[in-house]
Amino acid sequence: MNLLNTIAGAAAGLLTTGNPVGAIAGGVQGALAGGGPSNAGNIQPSTDGTLAAQQTLDEGYEWAQLGLNAENMRHNLAMELQSTMFNEAEDEKSEQLREMNTLRDVAMKQREADIGILKEFIKTVKD
User: Fold this and answer.
1) Does residue 66 share a domain with residue 9?
2) Do residues 39 and 16 touch, judged by C-beta distance below 8 A?
3) What is the pLDDT of residues 57-73, one digit of tens each?
Protein backbone atom coordinates (compact mmCIF):
# COMPACT_ATOMS: atom_id res chain seq x y z
CA MET A 1 0.00 0.00 0.00
CA ASN A 2 1.41 3.31 -1.12
CA LEU A 3 0.45 6.46 0.79
CA LEU A 4 1.14 8.70 -2.20
CA ASN A 5 -1.16 6.61 -4.42
CA THR A 6 -3.85 6.79 -1.73
CA ILE A 7 -3.66 10.60 -1.57
CA ALA A 8 -3.54 10.96 -5.35
CA GLY A 9 -6.50 8.57 -5.74
CA ALA A 10 -8.51 10.48 -3.16
CA ALA A 11 -7.76 13.79 -4.90
CA ALA A 12 -8.71 12.37 -8.29
CA GLY A 13 -11.92 10.88 -6.85
CA LEU A 14 -12.84 14.21 -5.28
CA LEU A 15 -12.16 16.13 -8.48
CA THR A 16 -14.08 13.74 -10.73
CA THR A 17 -17.12 13.19 -8.52
CA GLY A 18 -17.17 16.38 -6.45
CA ASN A 19 -18.16 14.63 -3.22
CA PRO A 20 -16.34 13.06 -0.26
CA VAL A 21 -17.60 9.55 -1.04
CA GLY A 22 -15.86 9.73 -4.42
CA ALA A 23 -12.71 10.91 -2.65
CA ILE A 24 -12.81 7.95 -0.25
CA ALA A 25 -13.47 5.50 -3.10
CA GLY A 26 -10.63 7.00 -5.13
CA GLY A 27 -8.30 6.78 -2.15
CA VAL A 28 -9.17 3.13 -1.50
CA GLN A 29 -8.74 2.26 -5.15
CA GLY A 30 -5.43 4.14 -5.33
CA ALA A 31 -4.16 2.34 -2.23
CA LEU A 32 -5.18 -1.10 -3.46
CA ALA A 33 -4.24 -0.74 -7.14
CA GLY A 34 -0.82 0.68 -6.51
CA GLY A 35 -0.70 1.89 -10.07
CA GLY A 36 -1.50 5.54 -9.54
CA PRO A 37 -4.64 7.54 -8.98
CA SER A 38 -8.06 6.20 -9.81
CA ASN A 39 -8.69 5.92 -13.58
CA ALA A 40 -5.14 7.00 -14.40
CA GLY A 41 -1.79 5.40 -14.98
CA ASN A 42 -1.11 2.32 -17.06
CA ILE A 43 -4.31 0.39 -17.64
CA GLN A 44 -3.61 -3.19 -18.66
CA PRO A 45 -6.03 -5.85 -19.91
CA SER A 46 -5.27 -7.81 -16.75
CA THR A 47 -6.54 -4.96 -14.53
CA ASP A 48 -9.40 -3.71 -16.72
CA GLY A 49 -11.62 -6.34 -18.36
CA THR A 50 -13.29 -3.80 -20.62
CA LEU A 51 -9.95 -2.97 -22.22
CA ALA A 52 -9.45 -6.57 -23.35
CA ALA A 53 -13.01 -6.64 -24.69
CA GLN A 54 -12.45 -3.37 -26.53
CA GLN A 55 -9.21 -4.68 -28.02
CA THR A 56 -11.04 -7.80 -29.23
CA LEU A 57 -13.77 -5.64 -30.78
CA ASP A 58 -11.15 -3.42 -32.41
CA GLU A 59 -9.38 -6.46 -33.84
CA GLY A 60 -12.68 -7.80 -35.18
CA TYR A 61 -13.42 -4.42 -36.75
CA GLU A 62 -9.96 -4.35 -38.36
CA TRP A 63 -10.52 -7.83 -39.84
CA ALA A 64 -13.92 -6.76 -41.16
CA GLN A 65 -12.37 -3.63 -42.64
CA LEU A 66 -9.65 -5.74 -44.25
CA GLY A 67 -12.33 -7.96 -45.79
CA LEU A 68 -14.18 -4.93 -47.14
CA ASN A 69 -10.96 -3.53 -48.59
CA ALA A 70 -10.20 -6.88 -50.26
CA GLU A 71 -13.72 -7.01 -51.73
CA ASN A 72 -13.35 -3.44 -52.97
CA MET A 73 -10.03 -4.28 -54.62
CA ARG A 74 -11.57 -7.38 -56.26
CA HIS A 75 -14.46 -5.27 -57.55
CA ASN A 76 -12.10 -2.61 -58.90
CA LEU A 77 -9.98 -5.23 -60.67
CA ALA A 78 -13.08 -6.81 -62.20
CA MET A 79 -14.28 -3.41 -63.41
CA GLU A 80 -10.83 -2.65 -64.83
CA LEU A 81 -10.80 -5.97 -66.69
CA GLN A 82 -14.27 -5.35 -68.06
CA SER A 83 -13.27 -1.84 -69.14
CA THR A 84 -10.12 -3.14 -70.83
CA MET A 85 -12.07 -5.83 -72.70
CA PHE A 86 -14.63 -3.25 -73.83
CA ASN A 87 -11.91 -0.86 -75.02
CA GLU A 88 -10.16 -3.63 -76.95
CA ALA A 89 -13.44 -4.64 -78.62
CA GLU A 90 -14.14 -1.03 -79.54
CA ASP A 91 -10.62 -0.59 -80.91
CA GLU A 92 -11.04 -3.71 -83.05
CA LYS A 93 -14.40 -2.47 -84.31
CA SER A 94 -12.90 0.94 -85.15
CA GLU A 95 -10.05 -0.72 -87.04
CA GLN A 96 -12.49 -2.84 -89.05
CA LEU A 97 -14.54 0.26 -89.91
CA ARG A 98 -11.38 2.07 -91.06
CA GLU A 99 -10.46 -0.90 -93.26
CA MET A 100 -13.98 -0.98 -94.72
CA ASN A 101 -13.81 2.75 -95.47
CA THR A 102 -10.44 2.33 -97.15
CA LEU A 103 -11.74 -0.54 -99.28
CA ARG A 104 -14.83 1.50 -100.17
CA ASP A 105 -12.63 4.46 -101.18
CA VAL A 106 -10.46 2.19 -103.34
CA ALA A 107 -13.57 0.68 -104.95
CA MET A 108 -14.94 4.17 -105.69
CA LYS A 109 -11.63 5.22 -107.28
CA GLN A 110 -11.67 2.04 -109.35
CA ARG A 111 -15.24 2.75 -110.52
CA GLU A 112 -14.26 6.31 -111.44
CA ALA A 113 -11.31 4.97 -113.40
CA ASP A 114 -13.50 2.35 -115.10
CA ILE A 115 -16.05 5.01 -116.05
CA GLY A 116 -13.24 7.17 -117.46
CA ILE A 117 -11.92 4.22 -119.54
CA LEU A 118 -15.45 3.42 -120.72
CA LYS A 119 -15.97 7.04 -121.82
CA GLU A 120 -12.70 6.97 -123.75
CA PHE A 121 -13.69 3.67 -125.34
CA ILE A 122 -17.06 5.10 -126.36
CA LYS A 123 -15.31 8.16 -127.91
CA THR A 124 -13.00 5.91 -129.94
CA VAL A 125 -15.89 3.77 -131.15
CA LYS A 126 -17.88 6.84 -132.25
CA ASP A 127 -14.97 8.24 -134.20
Assistant:
1) no
2) yes
3) 999 999 999 999 999 99
